Amino acid sequence: MKVAVNLQDTLTLNNGLAMPQVGLGVYKMTDEIEANFAIQSALRMGYRLIDTASLYENEQIVGDAVKESSLRRDEVFLTTKVWNSDQGYDQTLKAFETSLNKLQTSYLDLYLIHWPGREKEKYRETWRAFERLYSEGAVKAIGVCNFQVHHLEDLLAVCNEAPAVNQIENHPYLTQEEVRAYCREKNMIAEAWSPIARNKLASEPTLNHIAKKHGKSVSQIILRWHLQNGTVVIPKSVHPERIKENSELFDFQLSLEDMKNINALNKGERFGPDPDEFNNGF
């Protein structure tokens, strides 16, 4: 399994598109000055993936930061998501244009369905709009978030284009092996949101032992675990020192025993909503 060797290194999606394996998440970054500084700092450090969503209400800030950076648009991989209340064919197309305008770009690298909800027909119609945007070249890749295996099976049974990415809550207390294994089988990339579990695992003895052995922080150990699992990570921080720390993942390697011990921490414990129950906004 390929593992990124630097911040610009990529995984290849099922349509051949290169996606950075490490990016910056911007959830809850709504202070314009603070968020702009964080995004620009990340881009200067070498980050090339920025993950936002219409729900986050900061697409305009992300667009400004990318435009103000020294990078060309094609050097930054931009992801956003359609929110639940905007799902459906016509609503999705309208929401996409709104996001595109706020991000100040002519195309998206990746567009994701934020949640499946409880109505299959709803996300199926949303996906039909996604396929149109993809076929027209307005989006380079399309995918989903928080889809469990049964959601993916349902979508694959009716779609023309398979999702390239499934972004899920994923950390050592919620390893999501069943979903990740299904994604591997179907040639989808798994992407972890809340990859370090909102820092709730900082005192976990196993992780601290491994961190001490490698001379790294617990967060760096968890992020490296994700990378060696072939997962894309988008840790969030507004602090440049943390953003830098979260990028220093390429000068060490976890052993098979380390990986096994981290896998054994799984509790099936979510810190976010359960996709089978969450229906907010629909």
Descriptors:
39% helix; Aldo/ket_reductase_CS; oxidoreductase; 10 helices; two-stranded antiparallel sheet; NAD(P)_OxRdtase_dom_sf; NADP; alpha/beta; AKR
Q: What's the shape? A: globular
Task: Report strand order across the widest sheet.
Answer: 3-4-5-6-7-8-9-10
Q: Based on the coordinates given, report the CATH architecture.
A: Alpha-Beta Barrel
The total of beta strands comes to 10
Q: What is the number of helical segments per DSSP (H or I, 4+ residues)?
A: 10
Written as H for each helix and E for each strand, in order along the chain, the element string is EEEHEHEHEHEHEHEHHEHH
Structurally, how many domains make up the residues? Answer: 1
Walk me through what this model shows.
The chain is α/β, with parallel strands linked by helices and 282 residues long. It has one domain: TIM Barrel, CATH 3.20.20.100. The protein is 39% helix and 13% strand. It contains ten helices and ten strands. The chain has helices at 32-45, 59-68, 89-103, 120-135, 149-158, 177-185, 205-214, 218-228, 240-245, 256-263; strands at 10-12, 18-20, 24-25, 49-51, 77-82, 110-113, 142-145, 165-169, 189-193, 232-233. It has an eight-stranded parallel beta sheet with strand order 3-4-5-6-7-8-9-10. Helix 2 (59-68) packs parallel to helix 3, helix 4 crosses helix 5 and helix 7 crosses helix 8 (218-228). The protein starts with 9 loop residues before the first strand and ends in a 19-residue tail after the last helix. The relative contact order is 0.15.
